[in-house]
């Protein structure tokens, strides 16, 4: 009887239902994702500063409702807008009314979206941060125009570009941090005198890359407007592109403020990349730190060029270089040549840290250690710290200078720490 009473109570609240299924088994109405987001947003009272929306794989009506949700957020005065379309789905077309809210926007982040500003768009005058990842746009000319129409931009991140046949020009007088990654033909800064941090990742390179440079000495043209740069990170094929014209020697301008250079996936066995990296180091008189992660092409290992003596670079002087790290070393002629040059011409070098590739056997590691000990060092206090595990710096420790009992069978001056995977080579 109690059960029947409960059932009757439930039914009295659903008298208009024509279903014969007991009400207690009915599911509540399900809102679609866009409707749910919009419903929550409409219940908000007051000003919104930041709005982040993730868009799953939706049909056309659903995408339209998402755009209405973005409109509601903009009407609430949003200044920082992030729109993320699910990976692997068709990109989301950003609504045209977004570009009518120019005055209020200070930060924009779009992932997997279509960026197509109307022709009458005059820019975001107060935009300071722009982050574009996997963005679809007609060409780099439109992208360059979009960036130049935002005069207060301080930070720009462009990821997963796919325009390997086009040149990108950057005009951003207040830009401080710039990061670009993907496929592009070249990049040049028309105005970026306040840039202090630059990261460039070139994912691919055309077979005719030697012809893509629009001027002689592309490296000089690239860095001529970057006098304040402090941090530089180069990844992928960018060193190949920068060294396309084989120009050697320091740049005709000095990068006086550059303190750190990181080079990732650099093939030191390739003459272009070797000279590119060395040329940058020579052009930064106040450089303090260099980190190189090595990549090896079997076709360039052991090039005869690298049999020359490091004394050939007698005009080099890395007078402020204090720390050098080299990752994934196996000891090719090119890699050893770079190490020899850095040791010979760095009078205040403190530590050269080397992470040796784990696939080397014990004998190869010992031969590498002997080879490193033969190199002359301009700095009387420079130490070489070798780490033989897979992760750089894992379980490694620096040993203080002094006298150690050498019971490891290693050459004089090479000491093994208590863990057994790190070697310190004192001068």
Automatic annotation (TrEMBL):
Taxonomy of the source species: Eukaryota, Viridiplantae, Streptophyta, Embryophyta, Tracheophyta
PANTHER family: F-BOX/RNI SUPERFAMILY PROTEIN-RELATED, FBD DOMAIN-CONTAINING PROTEIN
Alphabetized SUPFAM superfamilies for the sequence: RNI-like
Origin superkingdom: Eukaryota
FBD domain ranges (all copies): 315-387
Protein name stated in the entry: FBD domain-containing protein
Alphabetized InterPro entries for the sequence: FBD (IPR006566), FBL13/AtMIF1-like (IPR050232), LRR_dom_sf (IPR032675), LRR_FXL15/At3g58940/PEG3-like (IPR055411)
